[in-house]
């Protein structure tokens, strides 16, 4: 039994045996991008560690990488010719770059220099590696390596944040003595650690529970028009739902994200459908729910909308203004109530008080399979980068303590996979 204190409530939680639902079903095809940093000398060992763990590795080098490690060494350990030129007629005659982009189950970039991270953040396609990243829907993992000052420069910090928001996974860097003689964060993780982290994900990615399953997810706020320029809205930034979409995609699911208005880019490989109002979100979800294996409602949907939006901009003639609001459809409850082809249905509960009691009431009253409850208000839950969740299902619960939303999304994905597998095992 695992104990946790969360929202001031001490919880006894059954440990979720994520490993029990995870099995590597086929060799992972990994496209390893090598950029031009001193840590590239570790790449032959990285390839060996990946191959040892059953992966097939295709190396793609940037032009600068060849100054630090030879293509011949990487060909010898990977057993495949190394690719580097975008316009190489001989290589393109074999597997062209679009076919190569589609071939990869995962893209790993190690080492990723500050320059390469900047090019990725800008979406450049000025060599083979950056072109492949743009042309692929495979999950991307980046292992940075650079001088500690470069890693901490605001430009690099902003670029890394862009990649994170795009759903890329960052492994490292580690801190310590650097080749340049300085000490600090910027060392590439050790090859065995990178291989373990990547193929643990690969195991999750091919888990019997989520691989190839269609997951339909809502995220972000809705906006309900008062007049053509004003609306009733809420503080949801979409960070929690988008992080979950990225984690589910990394776990091998085919993810459709129905999103209210946010400033976030769609995570790589996720299909996003943009909506504005609760009614639009309801229609987009109900049109797809029967084709989904799992439905997750992370959106903050307006419960009410103005009864009669004003056709023109409202003028401020009176001292008070009364808005009549009418109920919106409850998307989550309507999906849970489907009688045929009902997906495994996961709700969220955003509560300012009595988190557990309100969440359990929603689990039962809406007929859900699972609910993830968070405390909200005063800078917590909505908009924040970190969050904590109490997850309930019939006969079980699990506490996920305060952590960054991407890490929380990984943990929630493992729980969803576990419970979904239990629900389908008869
Ligand atoms: O987006 P962030 O800034 O990262 O913040 C994350 C979050 C706080 C928005 C997220 O973690 C969260 O809690 N989402 C659900 C917010 C919410 O509306 O909770 P609720 O308790 O009011 O609704 C319960 C459930 O019913 C939710 O799954 C909601 O999506 C769903 N619902 C609600 C009303 C409605 N008309 N239709 C629905 O589907």
Q: What's the β-strand tally?
A: 21
Distance between the termini: 25 Å
Across the major sheet, the strand order is 14-13-10-15-18-19-20-21
Number of contiguous helices: 14
Rg computed from alpha carbons, rounded to a whole number of angstroms: 24 Å
The figure for the number of domains is 2
Structural class: alpha/beta
Q: Give the low-confidence spans.
A: 1-25
Strand content: 15-25%
Which distinct ligands sit in these coordinates? Answer: ligand PMT
Calculate the mean pLDDT score and round it: 89
CATH architecture of the largest domain: 3-Layer(aba) Sandwich
Largest sheet: 8 strands, mixed
Give the overall shape, derived from the CA principal axes: elongated
Give the CATH level 1 class of the largest domain.
Answer: Alpha Beta
Named CATH topology of the largest domain: Rossmann fold
Helicity level: 25-40%
The CATH homologous superfamily of the largest domain corresponds to CoaB-like
Give an overview of the whole structure:
This protein has 426 residues and is α/β, with parallel strands linked by helices. Helix content is 32%, strand content 25%. An 8-stranded mixed sheet has the order 14-13-10-15-18-19-20-21, with helices on both faces. Strands 4-3-5-6-7 form a 5-stranded parallel sheet, sandwiched between helices. Strands 1-2 form a two-stranded antiparallel ribbon. β18 (344-351), α13 (355-365) and β19 (370-375) form a beta-alpha-beta unit. α1 (43-52) runs parallel beside α9 (191-205) and α4 (97-103) packs across α6 (128-135). The model is unreliable at 1-25 (pLDDT under 50). The protein binds ligand PMT. The site of ligand PMT has 28 residues, from α10, α12 and β18.
């Amino acid at each position: 039994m695992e104990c946790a204190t969360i929202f001031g409530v001490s919880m006894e939680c059954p440990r979720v045996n994520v490993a029990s639902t995870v099995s590597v079903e086929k060799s992972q095809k990994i496209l390893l991008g090598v950029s031009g940093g001193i840590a590239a000398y570790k790449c032959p060992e990285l390839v060996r560690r990946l191959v040892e763990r059953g992966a097939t590795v295709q190396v793609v080098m940037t032009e600068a990488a060849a100054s630090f490690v030879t293509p011949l060494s990487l060909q010898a350990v990977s057993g495949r010719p190394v690719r580097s030129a975008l316009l190489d007629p001989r290589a393109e005659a074999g597997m062209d770059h679009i076919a190569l982009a589609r071939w990869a189950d995962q893209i790993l970039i190690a080492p990723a220099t500050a320059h390469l991270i900047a090019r990725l953040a800008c979406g450049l396609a000025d060599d083979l590696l950056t072109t492949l990243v743009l042309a692929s829907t495979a999950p991307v993992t980046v292992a940075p390596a650079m001088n500690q000052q470069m890693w901490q420069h605001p430009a690099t910090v902003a670029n890394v944040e862009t990649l994170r928001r795009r759903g890329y996974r960052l492994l490292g860097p580690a801190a310590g003595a650097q080749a340049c003689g300085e000490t600090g964060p910027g060392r590439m993780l050790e090859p065995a650690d990178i291989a373990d982290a990547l193929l643990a994900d690969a195991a999750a990615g091919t888990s019997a529970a989520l691989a190839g399953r269609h997951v339909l997810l809502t995220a972000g706020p809705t906006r309900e028009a008062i007049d053509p320029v004003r609306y009733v809205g809420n503080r949801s930034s979409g960070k929690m739902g988008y992080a979950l979409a990225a984690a589910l995609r990394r776990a091998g699911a085919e993810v459709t994200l129905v999103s209210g208005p946010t400033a976030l880019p769609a995570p790589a490989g996720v299909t996003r459908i943009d909506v504005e109002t609760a009614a639009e979100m309801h229609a987009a979800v109900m049109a797809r729910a029967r084709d989904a294996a799992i439905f997750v409602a992370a959106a903050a949907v307006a419960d009410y909308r103005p009864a009669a939006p004003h056709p023109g901009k409202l003028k401020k003639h009176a001292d008070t203004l009364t808005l009549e609001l009418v109920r919106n459809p409850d998307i989550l409850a309507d999906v849970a109530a489907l009688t045929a082809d009902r997906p495994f249905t996961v709700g969220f509960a955003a509560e300012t008080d009595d988190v557990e009691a309100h969440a359990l009431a929603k689990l039962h009253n809406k007929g859900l399979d699972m609910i993830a409850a968070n405390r909200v208000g005063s800078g917590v839950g909505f908009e924040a980068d970190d969050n904590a969740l109490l997850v309930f299902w019939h006969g079980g619960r699990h506490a996920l303590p305060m952590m960054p939303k991407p890490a929380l999304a990984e943990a929630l994905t493992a729980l969803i996979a576990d419970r979904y597998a239990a629900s389908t095992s008869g």
